[in-house]
Design brief:
Length: 590
């Protein structure tokens, strides 16, 4: 009876409001022309693009040799174990990225007509800034499209994605073929150049009109006007430093083994030189902040952030989230009332060297298999909860063995929220957060978008490939110098770092070391999945674990990987292939 009354009421409501539903009030429909007089509405097109930026913590590690997850229905787990197809693609960014580009193209075609402010100088600066943001964001989305969807076709062409620089209407020809990878690079660099032309390198208030950069001085010499538009109120918007960071990311991708091709002329030297710009801006090879490794849990630093200020480690970040428990609720062990989603692998744990700098497989490492966590790289305890670690607000001991972890539920496969590998993730989490339902305490968090450490690692990798371990290409610092600084910050290698000195004379050994340092420094930050592919190395290393109960230490195989060779490159969405016959699929995904 209640259902009949509800349906009757809904029917009467539709009848009474039929005219309004079929004929919306004109004021509810925004037109393009309204952009010109409504600056907030116009800026909304940029806001939509910002909201579409891919998340930094994407948990793609679940599909690598670095981790597994206890979420049985997780898309990355399914991907890694054999269900990745062009129609079922967890890393598909096609629709999201091109949707954002549509907004940006519409904005760029109309930005010069918008009345941004009553003051003409301020209006011109607003126009420059937002135009620069739009160009920069368009380059950003093109970079992600290349990373996720570029690849070789069956006839051997290295293709990117369609280049769309005009707003598409219902009358546009959507059946556009994919541009070459090289042409996509050119488009990205062109947009980044335009971004740099229109943006300050960083958004800071100036104290004197003489400090106004020359490109803006032609518009205004008024300090208040400059600070209003280009000052601290605009922090966390796209800026020149971010543009250079994406140029570095793009060049690293393009110079990597997976994208080597006669049609792609990008060199390792280019990638190194682009990253060097940022390193010099930061202050040189030794300028990384001492607490940069723990950016996610530097309590005083994070709690003191305000006004859009970045911590010293961060180039770009998302907005602060206060009283937040999300990461901890998802990844704390069960005894700390978490669901333990991210289970680091034994493979990753073994990648951390000893504190003396030697890999645990080296005869000089002093590694003891019976005491696997003694004398290790301090980053291991910082980033991973292992058997016997302490964690949480009460510094509780976490036991992960099948027997020792039975009582708390933290042991391997004890419950659905328990670890599958004998490890829990500690990185990204604040230990002063309490997710106990009876006494929940959240804390301030932020998600990064770009860290300085990533830029330093880009330089190290590219410089080693371009000029060898100690060559600097005229930049004043080498791959060796960068890795030495990173390991020193981590507390690895002692005073002289003898293992690094051994690698210094061998480009291949240095390559292996640099890749491993990148793996450790950026673990759980969404890089490993893409690094394995651009390096074209083994994707099918079995994810392993370890079951520790007292003196019993038993290695276990946890999850096999089922990737095929063609999966070094992601697919074009199957729906696009069905709709448009000019779009070629990457080899193997047909």
């Amino acid at each position: 009876m209640k259902i009949r009354i509800l349906i009757l009421g809904l029917f009467l409501f539709i009848l009474s409001g039929c005219k309004k539903l079929l004929n919306p009030d004109p004021e509810n429909l925004k037109t393009i022309e309204q952009m010109y007089t409504d600056a907030g509405y116009a800026q909304g097109f940029l806001v939509n693009a910002y909201r579409s930026i891919p998340t930094y913590y994407d948990n793609s590690e679940y599909a690598t040799d670095d981790a597994v997850t206890n979420q049985k229905d997780n898309d990355y787990l399914k991907m890694a174990t054999g269900t990745w197809t062009a129609a079922n693609n967890p890393v598909n960014l096609w629709q999201t990225a091109f949707g954002a580009i549509q907004y940006l193209n519409l904005f760029l075609e109309n930005v010069d007509k918008v009345k941004w402010a009553e003051d003409q100088e301020a209006a011109q600066l607003f126009n420059m800034r937002m135009k620069g943001e739009a160009y920069g964001l368009r380059a950003l989305f093109m970079y992600y499209l290349l990373r996720n969807h570029a690849g070789f076709t069956s006839d051997g062409q290295l293709l990117g994605v369609p280049i769309v620089t005009a707003f598409q209407t219902i009358d546009s020809d959507f059946n556009q073929g994919r541009a070459t990878f090289a042409d996509c690079l050119t488009q990205i660099y062109s947009d980044l150049d335009k971004a740099l032309e229109n943006l300050p390198y960083e958004y800071n208030n100036l104290s004197s009109s003489t400090q106004i950069p020359e490109k803006f001085r032609a518009v205004t010499s008024n300090l208040e006007t400059y600070n209003r538009v280009m000052g601290e109120y605009s922090r966390q918007l796209f800026n020149g430093l971010i543009a250079d960071a994406f140029r570095s990311r793009t060049a690293l991708l393009a110079s990597s083994p997976a994208f080597q091709d006669a049609g792609n002329s990008t060199s390792w030297a280019e990638a190194a030189n682009y990253a060097a710009i940022i390193i010099n801006y930061k202050g040189g090879a030794d300028a990384l902040p001492s607490n940069g490794m723990s950016y996610y849990t530097n309590q005083t630093e994070i709690d003191g952030l305000s006004g859009g200020v970045n911590p010293p480690e961060i180039i770009w970040r998302e907005n602060l989230s206060t009283n937040n428990t999300t990461q901890e609720a998802q990844h704390f062990p069960p005894s700390l009332f978490g669901t333990g989603f991210m289970n680091p692998s034994q493979n990753l744990a073994e990648a951390f060297p000893m504190a003396n700098g030697y890999p645990i497989t080296d005869e000089d490492s002093e590694y003891e298999a019976t005491n696997p966590f003694v004398g290790r790289d301090p980053r291991l305890a910082r980033y991973i909860i292992y058997n016997g670690s302490t964690a949480g607000v009460e510094n509780s001991v976490i036991y992960t063995g099948t027997a020792t972890g039975m009582a708390t539920g933290d042991g391997i496969n004890i419950r659905e929220t328990s670890t599958r590998t004998g490890y829990y993730m500690k990185k990204r989490l604040r230990m002063d957060v309490n997710v106990n339902p009876s006494s929940t305490t959240g804390k301030t968090h932020y998600n990064p978008r770009i860290r300085y450490t990533e830029m330093y690692l880009i330089y190290a990798e590219a410089a080693n490939e371009a000029w060898g371990p100690t060559g600097n290409g005229g930049n004043g610092f080498s791959a060796y110098d960068i890795i030495k600084a990173i390991r020193k910050r981590a507390g690895v290698g002692g005073t002289n770092d003898p293992y690094l000195e051994k690698c210094k004379a061998d480009q291949d050994k240095m390559r292996e070391l640099i890749r491993n340092e990148r793996r450790l420094e950026l673990c759980f930050e969404g890089f490993r999945f893409w690094d394995l592919r651009r390096w074209k190395v083994n994707l099918n290393e079995t994810a392993k674990g370890i079951d520790i109960n007292g003196n019993s230490i038993v290695p276990i195989n946890v999850e096999n990987r089922s990737f095929q060779d063609y999966m070094y490159y992601g697919p074009i969405p199957y729906s696009e292939i069905l709709k448009y016959n000019n779009i070629q699929q990457n080899k193997g995904w047909d």
